[in-house]
């Protein structure tokens, strides 16, 4: 893999700045805090960090509502703090990816303030404005992901504007080329500053249907891992035919790529939430080498941690995405932590955490890790009074929102708020039981989840076959996830037993096991014709 292609197979560690490390005792994480804790991330052995938004924002959606794309919000620090953080990251060998939330802005963004001021101002067409129907109701049936209609009435323009999320997150009108130019200018601002890449928020939402046609009636969508299910979040409550994923986006993505290509070694990872069509969308966005570098979907962010599901996702990908590239993840700041999704009992948590990273590290693709998963953190149980996420506040208790995965990092077990802040109150509590899983207790422990993560990522680095080598599933035992990875003559067999009972893997005719490979946690009893695996265990062997 060439240096400029560092992103291919990279391990990307997502930092949620608000919850990483506070340095000025206001109970909120900040950029200086990230700088201070970068050695922890480097020690883990990842290639890049992805920072969730730290831009100027009223914080209605915790920074995913930007009011100035080219400045840092004072709660996080200053542009100088950012430069310093990036400098230290680079000196530690870490690439820096920032989050671009350009599908919508905050309603406090000067562009929207101007746009809503009249129907004739220079930015009048920068957002998706439309007249009401004759009876005064919204222009069409589009819905907001965060609940309710996707349109909000504006009394000054006497028109509706469209929003996919909060009413304070109006959608930009990408059909207007001036909007594209303005957005690309902000991207250039950060490229010139030296960032290595961008995570593109809701990248398939940039364009809506120009004719504003109604979406077809809703059919329950289980394709994204059953996120419709109760106790999970109510994402995917509509058929996204006309409000998302329009063909015009391909041309915009080409413009974006052309800009990136003027710089060396920059990369994009798009977030694609497109229900059943997600994989097709990823194929369209990442093939051809002239649009995005990679995308992630919600396929592995649901409750299903079975061999059949993972195999199905990867195989569907392999069939659909011919020359594109994918980024796999089990967790991020929008979903319940995977230890809580996958473990059936508290005693299982650390073994599940270890098994999950072993699976992830063996897959073809890039990987996104979410802060705290390297500690095996479970979802925090919060009281309604603790909630800060407007999405959770709205749907409580059917959906408890996204605060449970956004609680602060526990650094030092012995300190108040586990060392996250020296303020009296932290913006979200650090759960009591998470302090026991703090970084300082796990770093020294050879059996900890953290140590396993470190060893597993090291293992992945030592075996290039794991990054972009061929991947082929084998066997018919539905309980086992079995595949080979191959590159430059090295051929490895992986077998994962994700069930709670022992299982037998029968070697395909003609396959013989070679010498032992040093995969951390690899176990099992290998015979000439079959391998016996304990419940929730893994084996790796040369073949
Ligand atoms: O999330 C986008 C999002 O919630 C949808 O893509 C949804 O998950 C999908 O339709 C499921 O199929 C991003 C951010 O990650 C999130 O934190 C923000 O709240 C949101 O955008 C709005 O900016
Ligand atoms: Ca702070």
Automatic annotation (TrEMBL):
Molecular function per GO: alpha-amylase activity
Domain of life: Bacteria
Annotated stretches, region: Disordered: 217-241
Gene Ontology terms describing biological process: oligosaccharide catabolic process
Keyword Zinc: no
Residue runs in coiled coils: none
Presence of keyword Hydrolase: yes
Cross-referenced InterPro entries: GH, GH13_cat_dom, Glyco_hydro_b, O16G_dom_2
Pfam families: Alpha-amylase
Gene3D superfamilies named in the record: Glycosidases, Golgi alpha-mannosidase II, Oligo-1,6-glucosidase, Domain 2
Keywords linked to the UniProt accession: Glycosidase, Hydrolase
Location of the Glycosyl hydrolase family 13 catalytic domain: 14-406
Family listed: Belongs to the glycosyl hydrolase 13 family.
Name the record gives this protein: Alpha amylase protein
């Amino acid at each position: 893999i060439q240096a400029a292609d560092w992103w291919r197979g990279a391990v990307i560690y997502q930092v949620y700045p608000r919850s990483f490390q506070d340095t000025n005792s206001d109970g909120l994480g900040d950029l200086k805090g990230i700088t201070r804790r970068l050695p922890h991330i480097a020690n883990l052995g990842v290639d890049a960090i992805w920072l969730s938004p730290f831009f100027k924002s009223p914080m209605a959606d915790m920074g995913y509502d930007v009011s100035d794309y080219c400045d840092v919000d004072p709660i996080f620090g200053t542009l100088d703090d950012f430069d310093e953080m990036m400098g230290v990251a680079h000196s530690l060998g870490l690439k820096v990816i920032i989050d671009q939330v350009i599908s919508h802005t905050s309603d406090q963004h000067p562009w929207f303030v101007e746009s809503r001021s009249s129907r004739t101002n220079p930015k009048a067409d920068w957002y998706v404005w439309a007249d009401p129907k004759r009876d005064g109701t919204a222009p069409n049936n589009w819905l907001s992901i965060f609940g309710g209609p996707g349109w909000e009435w504006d009394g000054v323009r006497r028109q509706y504007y469209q929003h996919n999320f909060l009413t304070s997150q109006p959608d930009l009108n990408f059909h207007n080329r001036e909007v594209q130019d303005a957005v690309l200018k902000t991207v250039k601002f950060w490229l010139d500053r030296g960032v290595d890449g961008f995570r593109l928020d809701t990248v398939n939402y940039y364009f809506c249907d120009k004719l504003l046609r109604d979406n077809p009636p809703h059919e329950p969508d289980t394709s994204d891992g059953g996120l419709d299910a109760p106790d999970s979040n109510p994402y995917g409550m509509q058929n996204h035919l006309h409000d998302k994923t329009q063909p015009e986006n391909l041309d915009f993505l080409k413009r974006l790529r052309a800009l990136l290509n003027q710089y060396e070694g920059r990369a994009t990872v798009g977030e694609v939430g497109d229900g059943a069509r997600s994989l097709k969308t990823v194929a369209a966005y990442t093939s051809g080498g002239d649009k995005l570098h990679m995308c992630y979907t919600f396929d592995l962010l649901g409750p299903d941690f079975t061999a059949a599901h993972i195999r199905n996702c990867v195989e569907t990908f392999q069939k659909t995405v011919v020359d594109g590239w994918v980024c796999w993840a089990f967790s991020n700041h929008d979903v319940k932590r995977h230890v809580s999704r996958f473990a059936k009992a508290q005693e299982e948590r650390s073994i599940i955490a270890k098994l999950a990273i072993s699976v992830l590290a063996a897959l073809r693709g890039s990987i996104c890790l979410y802060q705290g998963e390297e500690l095996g953190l479970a979802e925090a149980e919060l009281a309604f009074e603790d909630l800060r996420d407007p999405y959770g506040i709205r749907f409580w208790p059917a959906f408890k929102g996204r605060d449970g995965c956004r609680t602060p990092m526990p650094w030092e077990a012995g300190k108040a708020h586990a060392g996250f802040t020296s303020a009296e109150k932290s913006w979200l509590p650090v759960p009591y039981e998470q302090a026991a899983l703090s970084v300082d207790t796990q770093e020294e422990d050879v059996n900890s989840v953290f140590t396993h993560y470190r060893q597993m990522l090291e293992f992945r680095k030592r075996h290039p076959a794991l990054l972009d080598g061929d991947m082929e599933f084998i066997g018919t035992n539905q309980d086992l996830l079995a595949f080979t990875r191959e590159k430059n003559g090295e051929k490895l067999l992986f077998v994962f037993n994700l069930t709670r009972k022992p299982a037998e893997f029968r070697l395909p005719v003609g396959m013989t096991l070679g010498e032992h490979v040093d995969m951390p946690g690899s176990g099992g009893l290998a015979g000439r014709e079959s391998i016996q695996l304990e419940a929730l265990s893994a084996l790796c062997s040369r073949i």
